[in-house]
Structures are given as structure tokens and as C-alpha cells.
TrEMBL record:
GO terms for cellular component: cytoplasm. It comes from Streptomyces tirandamycinicus. The lineage of its organism: Bacteria, Bacillati, Actinomycetota, Actinomycetes, Kitasatosporales. Fe-coproporphyrin III binds at residues 64, 133. This is Coproporphyrin III ferrochelatase. CDD domains: Ferrochelatase_C, Ferrochelatase_N. It holds the Pfam family Ferrochelatase. The keyword Oxidoreductase does not apply.
Length: 380
């Protein structure tokens, strides 16, 4: 039949699967301590900080919101693929909790998958958000190798911080939060874009070393996203809201410098300057992680109440169908590139589309460990 000879309209080749790679989180009170041990093994986090973060989880019944968010995203992806006529299985594996990456990758291999596109639930360059996931992939491949299993090739899809399917839903979220503020303070509201604080040294080394100055790709990428959102909001409302990129969820020892200011200090400063309201925009988080539910919705919101400063927290992308479609777009784009085709790469802002393959020295670690899916990968 002629139909069989026509090129597939949505050709995922050479990929035979998509792997959603995430952080993982506890599913109940008994999971909290072992989860935190997994996260912080060898990372030098003070004991007091761990106790404190454990309390954040216990406050929510020991359940991290991240797993439900990932299950919703998996559903959205499967729906999106089916709707687009893309026949590709979608798997899910985590760094720190079940389903663990190694178990998922083993299942994939036993299912016959040999060429895997990987989407990490972190949109930006950094050790924690990029290289560490590549190290996790190398560890999983090494475990399968030790079991005598055939190794799949894993390709990590590019950073999507500036993809319209990631930014569009956030713009809508900011507009909704602004509309939710009392009318008399709305036009003068500040936008506080927030992301995970990381050590200054990790920020400086984020992304391809040669390409970025101080603050590295991590800070630059967030600033680019913030500017795009501010412009899009202005186009809708006619108001150029003052804004700043601020940080949250700092965890290391106090004598080590991390990115600042913290969101709570920032709210205090805004209040001191007579700013009448603010919207917290968690651009650093793909979905409502514990950092969003605790550090913003609980801690920073209480701080604002204490100050008498009206604040709203705008929505994360989560399982928005536009985000699922963006992931399909990234996968098909990379698939075409791997087939040697010229591809169009969607990106807003000034930085342009990120690289497909992390170059040698991208987001260096404190100690050198093998990392897959990059120019320095020991795997094919
Ligand atoms: C940049 C970044 C992202 C964003 C990229 C991405 O989204 O992946 C991220 C995500 C996440 N971080 C998470 C949880 C934790 N992170 C910790 C510790 C740390 N994070 C760091 C950075 C990041 N982390 C860093 C530099 C540390 C210090 C220790 C180290 O250098 O590794 C700790 C230890 C306790 C503490 O001190 O907070 C916990 C419990 C969860 C799950 C939340 C949930 O359950 O919903 C998620 C998604
Ligand atoms: Fe973290």
C-alpha cells in the first residue's frame, strides 16, 4: 500500500523510547530520611539543614509532590504522542527514589529499547540540573554492563528553558497571579523570579566554560527567561513591571557563598522600599516541587503576611499540554538532527537554542565521575 511507503509524518527514528529522568521524592513518612540520605550522600550538607528539610516533608505527610507531578506529565506525554500519531513508549526513572533510574533502564533494555532520548525535569544548565543527571546515566549504564546486558545509547535532549512551550504557560500564570492581586496594587506589583540557589562556584562553572562569564549559563539563562516573561506580560497588560531574579532553598554551610538574595530577604527589601505587592514566579522549577510548596507557598508567603505585603505565587508548567508538546518537539528535532537533517530549533529570548551535546568541561563536578550523553561520555 502506498501509505506504507510514505515517510512517517512524525518520525522518531533513531529513537525507540523516551525516558523522563527526574529527582524522585518520598511517598510517605518512612521514606523521608532514606530519601534525604540518597540526596545528600557525599554532598556535605550540615545535619541541622537536613533535619529542617525533613520537617518540610513531614509537614506534608512525608509525601513529596514531585512524583504525582511526574505521573501527570507522563500521562500528558502519552496523550500528546497518541494525538500526534507518534508511536513511542515513555518511561520514567529517578535519581533519588523509586522508580530508580537503573531499574527503569534495565526494564527498557529487556523491552528491547536500544536508543533512548532522555528528558530531565530540569530546564537549565548546572551541575545539579544537568551533569549530575549525566553521571546518573553513566552509573546506570555501568550497572547494566556489570549485569552483562546490552547497553542502550542514551541522548539527553537540550535545555528547554527558552522553549515557547515552557515559557508560554508561565506567562499565563503570571497574568493570572497579577489579576488575582487587589486592583489598587496590581499595576505597581514587582515580579520576583525565583530559582534554586546554588553555590557561587557552581554557578560560575555552569554550562560550556568558554561561552559564559561570571554567573555562568545558569544565571544568564534565568535572566533571559525573566526578560521574555516581563516583555510578554507587558504586551498583554501594557505595564512594564519592575523585576528581579532572586533565589531560594539554599542548603550548604553558611561560610560558602551561594547565589543571593534569598526570596524572603528580597520581599523584606521590597516592602522597605514601599513596593505595594509582588508576584513570585518560580521559573527555576518545572513543577510544584517541595521547594515551591514549602519555601514559597509556606515560608515566603508567611514572611509576606508578616510584612503586610500582598503576594501571589504563579503556576509552574507541570503537566501543561503545551509543555508535553514542547517535549515532543524537542524529541523530533533531535531525532531529525541525529538522522543528519537540517532542523529548526524553537527558542525565545537572546541566548538561542542550547547545544545538543554537552561539550567537555560543561558544568564541572567537584570530583570527576564518568558522565554519559556528552562529549566526554565513555559510552557510545
Ligand atoms: C539547581 C537545583 C535544582 C533544580 C533543578 C531540578 O529541578 O532538578 C534542584 C532540584 C531539586 N532538589 C530537590 C531536593 C533537594 N535538594 C537538596 C540539595 C541541593 N539541591 C541543589 C540544587 C538543585 N536542586 C543543591 C546545589 C543542593 C545541595 C546539595 C548538592 O550539592 O547536591 C536537598 C538536600 C536538603 C537541602 O539542603 O535542601 C533536597 C532534599 C528536589 C526534590 C523536591 C521535592 O521533593 O519535590 C528537586 C527537584
Ligand atoms: Fe535540590
Amino acid at each position: 500500500m502506498a501509505e506504507q511507503h510514505a515517510p512517517a509524518p512524525r518520525d522518531p527514528a533513531p529513537y525507540d523510547a523516551l525516558l523522563l529522568l527526574s529527582f524522585g521524592g518520598p511517598e510517605g513518612p518512612d521514606d523521608v530520611v532514606p530519601f534525604l540520605e540518597n540526596v545528600t550522600r557525599g554532598r556535605g550538607i550540615p545535619k541541622e539543614r537536613l533535619k529542617e528539610v525533613g520537617q518540610h516533608y513531614f509537614l506534608f505527610g512525608g509525601v513529596s509532590p514531585i512524583n504525582a507531578q511526574n505521573r501527570a506529565l507522563l500521562d500528558a506525554l502519552r496523550k500528546d504522542f497518541a494525538g500526534a500519531g507518534l508511536d513511542l513508549p515513555v518511561y520514567w526513572g529517578n535519581r533519588n527514589w523509586a522508580p530508580y533510574l537503573t531499574d527503569t533502564l534495565r526494564e527498557m533494555v529487556l523491552d528491547g529499547r536500544r536508543r533512548v532520548a532522555v528528558l530531565a525535569t530540569s530546564a537549565y544548565a548546572s551541575y545539579s540540573g544537568c551533569r549530575q543527571y549525566r553521571e546518573n546515566l553513566a552509573d546506570a549504564l555501568s550497572a547494566l554492563e556489570a549485569e552483562g546486558l546490552p547497553l542502550p545509547r542514551v541522548d539527553k535532549l537540550r535545555h528547554y528553558f527558552n522553549h515557547p512551550g515552557f515559557i508560554g504557560p508561565m506567562v499565563e500564570g503570571v497574568l493570572a497571579s497579577l489579576a488575582d492581586l487587589p486592583e489598587d496594587v496590581r499595576a505597581d506589583a514587582h515580579l520576583a523570579f525565583t530559582t534554586h540557589s546554588i553555590p557561587d562556584a557552581a554557578a560560575d562553572g555552569s554550562g560550556p566554560v568558554a561561552e559564559h562569564g561570571r554567573g555562568g549559563a545558569y544565571v544568564k539563562q534565568h535572566l533571559d527567561v525573566a526578560r521574555v516573561i516581563v516583555d510578554a506580560v507587558r504586551e498583554e497588560t501594557g505595564v512594564a513591571h519592575p523585576w528581579r531574579l532572586v533565589y531560594q532553598s539554599r542548603s550548604g554551610a553558611p561560610h560558602i557563598p551561594w547565589l543571593e538574595p534569598d526570596i524572603c530577604d528580597h520581599l523584606e527589601e521590597l516592602h522597605g522600599e514601599g513596593v505595594p505587592a509582588a508576584v513570585m514566579v518560580p521559573i527555576g522549577f518545572v513543577s510544584d516541587h517541595m521547594e515551591v510548596l514549602y519555601d514559597l507557598d509556606t515560608e515566603a508567603t508567611a514572611k509576606a503576611a508578616e510584612l503586610g505585603l500582598p503576594v501571589r505565587r504563579s503556576a509552574t508548567v507541570g503537566a501543561d499540554p503545551r509543555f508535553a508538546a514542547a517535549i515532543r518537539d524537542l524529541l523530533l528535532e533531535r531525532a531529525a538532527a541525529e538522522r543528519g537533517k537540517a532542523v529548526e530549533r524553537c527558542a525565545l529570548g537572546e541566548l538561542g537554542p542550547s547545544h545538543d551535546l554537552c561539550p567537555i568541561g560543561c558544568c564541572p563536578a567537584r570530583s570527576e565521575r564518568p558522565a554519559a550523553a556528552g562529549a566526554d561520555s565513555p559510552y557510545a
